[in-house]
Design a protein that fits this description.
The chain is mainly beta. The protein contains 1 helix and 7 strands; from the N terminus they run E-E-E-E-E-E-H-E. The chain has a 7-stranded antiparallel β-sheet. Strand 1 and strand 2 form a beta hairpin. The N and C termini lie far apart (about 25 Å).
Length: about 90
């Protein structure tokens, strides 16, 4: 299909993807299990999840994307953030 995508890992218990939108110049949340697109707060707000850390994996790096998935005013249980390039 030609989408640039990355694998998202929530360290509590869930995985999904993000798809790059060239039109919007940003990564869009995409959860095929839940049939949701661009709804990054559904886990913290809709499910009431207490996120520890959320990481994005692509071909060249691992990025911490936890803040994108936290409800406003929330703090993740893991506060140290790093980006790893490989």
């Amino acid at each position: 299909l030609g989408f640039e995508a990355r694998y998202i890992l929530d360290l509590t218990d869930h995985v999904w993807t993000e798809i790059w939108s060239g039109e919007q110049h940003r990564w869009l949340h995409a959860d095929p299990c839940e049939k949701k697109l661009d709804r990054p707060l559904m886990y913290a707000k809709g499910w009431g999840k207490k996120l520890i850390a959320v990481f994005a994996f692509d071909r060249c790096q691992v990025s911490d994307v936890t803040r994108r998935y936290l409800a406003p005013g929330s703090v993740a249980a893991c506060s140290e953030r790093r980006i790893v390039h490989f």
